[in-house]
């Protein structure tokens, strides 16, 4: 199952980064964003899109 995380840093060039990982801990998708709300929206949409693709590729 894919998982999403929000990373925030005061010292990084990109202050907030939203990242999606696969089951093996490999990065599937990531994006620098301006706010935590934008990060959560990105994660929600990315996870929904991935679930839709997985459901299409692997019928349940």
TrEMBL record:
It comes from the Bacteria. This is Uncharacterized protein.
């Amino acid at each position: 199952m894919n998982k999403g995380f929000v990373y925030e840093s005061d010292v990084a060039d990109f202050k907030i980064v939203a990242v999606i990982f696969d089951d093996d801990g490999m990065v599937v998708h990531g994006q620098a964003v301006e706010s935590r709300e934008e990060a959560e929206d990105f994660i929600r949409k990315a996870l929904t899109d991935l679930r839709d693709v997985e459901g299409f590729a692997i019928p349940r």
